[in-house]
């Protein structure tokens, strides 16, 4: 088993506004090893979210290739990507993105239920226990605070034991106290479960705990 | 930005929610289309009938009776006829059989004998273009073109009517006294009154409409003269009316049809109104966030309200214009839809008044259905920027007053449209009850659904989406189910009425009716057609009072349905018919005679219900001038098809044996021999009328088919309203659905899963709506058949099933169409939109 989990080769991403071609990512190459904790940093608008979504297969690069766990996922269709998203990767977003019609525990269970895991409920419950939300399982997202919602989202990202978790500004919507809690949670995960983490963030405190920091500037990786 | 109208803001707001704006416009238009069309049609029909009321009735004063005029009345008419400035023409109208001179063929026809001068008003146009009064001389007839065709005759040929031989001299083009002719089962023959005696068809007891038409030169005298005639007329038997007061069959027919179509259109209007409200509410719900932001930037509540009032006004204006124009356009083409049923002089087309009326209607409807969502705009708090504030549902007193006013306004509209306060209120009450019943039913089902432990993930997801807070599932299902249930009920009623009255005519039932058999012809008639034919005596009479209370002609005639004031056929016989059972009393006549000395009478249950008559009630009949006091001795019910001859009132023979009477014979003849037998009978007894029941039923069926097409046409508008509500809700929940689909995908669901969830969600929605509709429609139709029409009920399940399948297809297609587009796309775009 190779030690490289994620590899991006010369990826670029363009948007077209009318006839205008806007380059958001320019010739980015990046390798992430198993168990590594990588933070993508950069000022607002530098392309962090774009890079993260291309790396994770939520978006497609205009040029370049993405390999994940030894497989080229660049041209996979949405349906071919479904099992990858379900079991290989997990996502955490700044805006939480919990399913509003499901309560907390159902949100956490959902990916496990998709792959017909009979242990879905137990696993979800034990994850909730771990993040200290054992009593909030029956609450709907709108009945939870931002910090609680983000913890639920992290549990949901973890339930299928993914190899890699992508997080985009996981603390962006939270106050410093809650942010600290979330950061600690992610760091513990990385340590305890040997999960590979790729996080885009402005947070210095999060960046300081990372194994490696990749800095973006105007869509290009800043050397040094 | 404080006070002025910000035009840019207006345009941007409309363009930003184009689809909802279009749905709103369509709802406004739909609410008006059918009602404007029908109102315009109504005024055209009235125009065509009323503009020429004299031409329609044929005189300034019309005296009508089912019997030869009483001597006093006859004298008065004769005296008037001698005065200058007054012209009189008498007519006799009846059905009889016309034969070819060679006796080869015969045809049941409508014969009208007229005196010189007829028609005093209006015209009888002849195909030759000659003047009617010159052409119709004694010994001649003019006939409808159909008669020539069916008997294979030509101008100049001879026609046998009763004992007369008459020459066909012309063909009728149009009669202003008969603007429509689908009521008549037989072609028209006009003959001179002078030939009546020779024909010998008007005999004691036979069915003839006697009329005297008066033309009065001095219009101011009309009412006085009519009153004078009325004073001499036998009340309840001889009717005197002026051209202004006389009612006509044509008018009554259209009154009834338009009344029913009005009901259907008002229902469509209500549903479209609900559509307006829900699309506007959805439109505004999406705006809540931006309202809050605008308010936090300093826009006042009245700024927003003002602008939205203008937006709603603009959209409603477009909707009204579209609705009114399409309504009038539709009406212009009613000649196709109503082909064969329209008065021949009708001019279809919209008038200025129709447009005005449409605008008025639109104003009321739009106001009523939009003020609630609009009134909420002012209350959007800037704080809603931060939280999605749930509507606490509390309304202030002003809102209740507004709702109250709206309901009064709407009630006024419905009552005006139906032209009947009581029925208007019943109708609104009925609609409310229907919606209430369906709401409760849906509420229970949704509750059950939410309690269900569902193992399958897609199914659970679908149910959860349906029950998602803020989802309009309930109003959608309720409106859709209401529309479907009304539609299905209309169908089921048509189906069952048809099955009972037309299709179920049993093969062994009599198929040839013989009318007007005279007392002295009984023996010979039997000799001709067979000894075993059953002959029923018929004595024509009126019911004048029940337990001393007079039957009021005016109020009875106003009732829809059968009237107690009409002339009845009494009969006498000692026993029940084979298809009758006693439901009250131990024998037909009991011991009434011994107890009270009155004449016993047995009633059929239908007439007993009509007049709320019970055992022991005392009825007074007027048997052609002679009063007869009778006591109800039993009540009967019928077990078989409705086309079998039946009698409301049955007496013992001794009480009616002496009264003027004819006999009625019902024969069972092989189909191929009917025409031959009809011929034989009329050749022997020219006065006897024969009716080929099968043929008559087929004629009737054609008309009913036509009517049901018309009704279905208008009812289908309500389905459109339901569909619009559905589209509006699909649009309103589109964002929420896309969001969910994206989340599913991000978490690793494939296309199949997402599609399955959407499919199931819409499937359940459709199933709930049509399931409820079927339940309510079946129960309602069963009740109507059982208690109102008193006929057997056939649930006709395949049609219910077909409706269910169609609803499911429609709802699922609409629902999937709106969200399929995102399936193949990368999720990131939608995720960005969400944050
Ligand atoms: N759909 C799009 N069309 C055009 N330009 C886009 C689109 N999506 C993103 N961009 C542009 O791409 C650039 C990078 O955006 P991105 O969201 O990746 O930045 P970011 O580093 O995540 O910023 P932030 O720290 O504020 O989240 C921005 O300039 C943005 O305007
Ligand atoms: Mg970003």
How would you sum up this structure, described in words?
The complex is a heterodimer of chains A (224) and B (835). Chain A has 224 residues and is α/β, with parallel strands linked by helices. Chain A has a single domain, classed as Rossmann fold (3-Layer(aba) Sandwich), CATH 3.40.50. Helices cover 34% and strands 29% of the residues of chain A. Chain A is built from seven helices and ten strands. Chain A has helices at 48-56, 78-88, 104-114, 120-130, 146-158, 176-193, 204-207; strands spanning 4-17, 20-33, 37-42, 63-68, 71-72, 89-92, 164-168, 196-200, 212-217, 220-221. Chain A has a six-stranded mixed sheet. A four-stranded antiparallel sheet of chain A has the order 2-1-4-5. In chain A, β4 (63-68) and β5 (71-72) form a beta hairpin. In chain A, α3 crosses α4 (120-130). Chain A starts with a strand and ends with a strand. The model of chain A has no long low-confidence stretch (mean pLDDT 91). Chain B has 835 residues and is an alpha+beta fold. Chain B folds into four domains: 1-54 and 250-419, no CATH class; 59-242, no CATH class; 439-505 and 693-835, no CATH class; 512-667, no CATH class. Helices cover 54% and strands 17% of the residues of chain B. Chain B is built from 27 helices and 21 strands. In chain B, the strands form two sheets. In chain B, strands 2-3-8-5-7-6 form a six-stranded mixed barrel. In chain B, strands 12-14-19-16-18-17 form a six-stranded mixed beta barrel. In chain B, α13 (397-418) crosses α14 and α14 (421-451) packs across α16 (473-503). The longest helix of chain B is centred in the first third of the chain and has 48 residues, at 249-296. The A-B interface holds A 49, 53, 58-60, 77-79, 82-87, 91, 93-95, 97-102, 110-111, 113-115, 140, 142, 156, 160 and B 388, 457, 461, 464-465, 467-469, 736, 739-740, 743-753, 823-828, 831-832, 834-835. Magnesium ion is lined by residues 48-49, 168-169 of chain A.
